[in-house]
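So, can you check this record?

>
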Amino acid sequence: MDSSGKIIWAKHSEIQQANIKAIADQEIKDGERLPLAVKDMGSCEIYPQTIAHNPNGRFVVVCGDGEYIIYTAMALRNKSFGSAQEFIWSNDSSVAKAFKPDFGAEGLYGGNMLGVRSVSGLAFYDWDTTELVRRIEITPKNIFWSENGELVCITTEESFFILKYNQEAVDNARSSGSKEDITEDGIEDAFEVIGEIEETVKTGIWVGDCFIYTNSVNRLNYYVGGEIVTVAHLDRVMYLLGYIPKDNRLYLGDKELNIVSFSLLLSVLEYQTAVMRRDFETADKVLPTIPREHRTRVAHFLEKQGFKSQAMAVTYDPEHKFELALQLGELKAAYEIAKETESEQKWKQLAELAISKCEFGLAQECLHNANDYGGLLLLATSAGNVGMVAKLAQTAEKSGQNNVAFLSYFSLGRLEECLEVLINTGRLPEAAFFSRTYLPSQVSRVVQLWRENLGSVNNKAANSLADPEEYENLFPGFVEAQKTEQFLRPQRKSLIPANKYPQVPSNHERNPVEEMQAAEQSGSFVFVSDTLQENEEEEEDFKEAEDVPVSQVTQGIDDQKILSEDVNLDEDLLED
């Protein structure tokens, strides 16, 4: 197919033609067979094996049976003929030259340069001077040049390579004439490898800097800037014919001469081409012409090229925009998106970013919105915020986040609350061991609860649980443990500033029992049993009640009600 949409093929020796322009007014759906009118051009004098338009579409060459014939594309008039095993066109098809390559020729490839395949590999020659430009050790299957001659795709049986041609390096090497620059393999810097893709290319064309191709698994893809985009999944083997920019459509055909097309926006290809050439001025002009539904695809392309800020401005996908905002550290933009979506995962991700940027206020809000109690505990304890830890403990306990609640209470030294968390969650064995370690005064109560709970399952096991009040001999040092608990209680309630950490001895360096005994001997500590302490508290409450004036005690009694009682003392006395 030429650039104007004329498709020509050979059916046996008969040449036929169809024109895409004839159905320009009809609605075309992707993958549907096009209702093209076929025109018979006439018969060919040889049996065609290959047929191809020249670059401007004015001529058609047919090659086969060891001969070639050049026809006019419109009327199929014979313009030239001769002997040939293969025939290729250069970009400028008006000049014909002959030369003999050094290593023979097993295959020819046209385009910006003459490609010759031989036993030694692939050699590129200049069309004008027939000088060797570069020899590459590769066995190509096909070669496709871009329109401007800067990019070339070399396909093999298993993969394809994208190379960039450096015209400036070639000119410099030729002008210098140095043997270091020009070796027997040509100019080393003539080509630069851009990418290698493990995929088999069947047919392909270039549109700008985008290489469009069909592969061995019947997919229609295009490659640009290291990214492969799938245009369509084909249901049979098809061959690329060409691309009409005005229609924004790709055209393909199969062996039965069925022609189908697929939509591929030129504006998207132009934008990606401009980005690859770092021509952002052109890219900005093309961007408004790209429909909104295609912007996200363009944004992903920009991201892969490393232009994340531009990708964030282009994309309309909230998920993609949020990810880009995180990568760019845009807290405000990420916060707005998280606020709109109300996603716990987004709040957690934003909290991590806020912490990394020392925005602890924002991090706290994000963790709260994400219900991330573990994160809030980490933040609160790291900041030494007592009020935040206390509030978190209460909130976590109400929300059923018992581990966080336990750790929060434990960090504050509120061991009684820790014990209640264990009891309320039914973890009575842990509660018993916890009380034995930290709150010996509560052991009997917890053991009694444990017995009752275990008795419903195994009464014998429940009776085997020993209570320190009943079996004091089984708990050596239990009295000292109770004294130590009471001795340490004031210390637990006094919160030490974080900056005093270097001055406070570590727990493993202390012996609380010895500290209690030393304090007891010095008279600074006097142990009061819990029973006596409770009685003293009750007596204090009673004394406080005695000190209350009678007027306050009788306050609230209805005086009118007392006076209205009908009591006759004389009658009572007479009855006696």
Remarks:
- The longest helix spans residues 530-546.
